[in-house]
Amino acid sequence: MTTDGSRIVVIGAGHAGGSAVALLRQYGWSGAIALIGAEPLPPYQRPPLSKAWLKGEADGDSLLLRPARFYADQRIDLRLSTRAVAIDRAERQVRLSDGAALEYAHLIISTGARPRTLSLPGADLRGVLTLRGAADADRLKAALGPGRRIAIIGGGYIGLEVAASARALGAEAVVLEREERVLARVACPVLSDFFTRYHAARGVAFELGCRIEALEGRGGAVAGVRLSDGRLVACDTVLVGVGAAADEDLARDAGLDCDGGIVVDGQARTSDPAIFAIGDCTRRPLPLYGRSFRLESVPNALEQAKQAAAAICGRPAPPPEVPWFWSDQYDIRLQIAGLPFDATETVLRGDPEAGSFAIFHLAADGTLRAVEAVSAAPEFMGGKMMIARRQRLLPERIRDTAISVKDLPA
Amino acid sequence: MPKVTYIEYNGTEHVVDVPVGTSVMRGAVDNNIPGIDADCGGECACATCHVYIEPEWFAKTGARSSQEESMLSFAAVTQDNSRLSCQIEMTAELDGLVLRMPEGQH
Ligand SMILES: Cc1cc2nc3c(=O)[nH]c(=O)nc-3n(C[C@H](O)[C@H](O)[C@H](O)COP(=O)(O)OP(=O)(O)OC[C@H]3O[C@@H](n4cnc5c(N)ncnc54)[C@H](O)[C@@H]3O)c2cc1C
Ligand code: FES
Predict the structure, then answer these.
(1) Residue A3, in any domain of the structure
(2) Tens-digit pLDDT profile for residues A316-343
(3) Are residues A255 and A344 both part of a single domain?
(4) Ligand 1 centre from A398 Cα, in Å?
C-alpha cells in the first residue's frame, strides 16, 4: 500500500483506539498513525479495575493492552496526557490541547464513555468516587480494607464486582439500588435474584427500591447516604455506579450525527465518510437484531476496531459477531451471549442452587436471542454459535440437561 | 529469553522472544502478530486465542483445565493439539515452541 504521507489520527487511547492502531499495522497501513490519549497511561484494559486488579491479584503492567515499547516499535505517534479539543472537518484537522494541529486522511474517534454522576446534595464530598479509569481505581483501592465501609450506589455489573472485591479485601459493602432488583437493566430476574443471594451470603448488604435524598459528610468527607425514608446508611466511601454516557461532545460539535452515541454504520463509519467512530462512544447497527444500540463492552470495541481498520485498508468487511460480555464475582463467571431483544420466553437450564446454570431467551418463533450463563462455559459458547445461526430451539429440550448443548438443535 | 515461532494460517512465520512467566497469547499480542484476537485479555472467557501446538511440543505445554476444555469444545475447527494460548505460561522448557494459528477466531 502506498499511503505514506497520509495520516490516520485516532482520538482516545483506550481499548478501542489502542486495538485499532495495532490492527491498522497488521492490515498493512504504512502511513503515519497518531494516537491521542487524555490519560497518562498507554491503552489499558478496564475490566480488571473492578476485579483482579482491585483485589490485588494483578499488577499494573498486566493491565496494559500492549507493552509501552509497542507504539514506538510499530511507528505509532502516541501522545499521552493530551486531549483533542476540536475537529475541523473542512480542513481535515484535529486540534490538540497542547496547541498542535494534526491533519488526517482518516479520523477514528474512540473517546469511550463517561460515568454518570449524581446531582444530589453532598455529591462533591471527599470519598465520593466513580470508576472508569486507572486513577479512579487507585483512589477506590486505597479506600477498601478491613474496618472500611463502602456504599455502592447502583447495582449494575461494576457495582456488584466492586462489592465482591471489597469483601475480598475485608471491607464492608452495601449496595443501594433504585430498582426492585440488581442488574435490572441488563439481566433477567432469575439472574438478579441469584446474584443478590450470592452476595448476601458473603456479607454484602442490599437496599433495593430505595431513593437517595443526599450524601452527608463530616469535615468535608462523606459519612453516610440519607435515604428518602429518613434512614442514614453509614459509610466512609461512596461509589457512584449508575452507568455511563457516550463521550460524543467532539463529534457533535463537529456536526456528526449523534443520538446517545455517535451514529455509525456496519463499517464503523460516521455521517462523514472520512471519520470513523468505535467503542463505547458509538450507536451501532446490530444486524442480528435489526436495530441500532450503544454497547459498552470490550468485544464490541474490538469488533468495531476491526471494522474501521478493514474499511480504511480496503479489506473485506469482517463478518458480524454476536455481542457478548462477561463479569467475574467471587468464584462465579457470568458470560452473556447475545441480547434479549424481541425475546418472549426465558428458559432455565440447570440449577441455580448448584451454582452452574444458564438462561436461554427465545423469540416468539423459538429463535435463540440470548444466553446468560453462570459458570456454564458450554452453554455460553454453544449459545453464541446458535444465536449467530438464528437457531430455533424447543424449551423442553433446553431444560433437559441430559441433552448436551451441542445436541440441543436436533 | 525463550523463543516462540508463531505460524500464521497463510504460512507466514514469526519468531519472537517471550519472557518466562508471560502467556503465549501475550507473546503474539505484544508483537502484533496477526491471528490471535484475545478478546477477553487472557481470562479464558472467549476462546479467541486458539492455536494448534506442533505435536512434538504439545505434551510440554501442560494439561488443559476444565474451563479451557469446555471453551475449546466450541471453538471453530478444533484439533487434538488445540490450546487456548492465554492458558500456556512461558517457561524455559518451552524455548523453541512452535504453534500454528487457525483460519479465524470467530
Ligand atoms: C470498571 C470497569 C469494568 C469493566 N468490565 C468489563 C468486562 O468485564 N467485560 C467487558 O466486556 N467490558 C467491561 N467494561 C467495559 C469496557 O472496559 C469498555 O467497553 C471499553 O473500555 C471500551 O473501550 P473504548 O476504547 O470505547 O473506551 P475507553 O476504554 O474508555 O477509552 C476511551 C479513551 O479516550 C480518552 N478520551 C476521551 N476523550 C478524549 C479526547 N477528547 N482526547 C483524547 N482522549 C480522549 C479517554 O480518556 C479514554 O482513555 C468495564 C468497564 C469498566 C470501567
Ligand atoms: S484470551 Fe480469551 S480465552 Fe484466551
Answers:
(1) no
(2) 999 999 999 999 899 999 999 999 999 9
(3) no
(4) 35
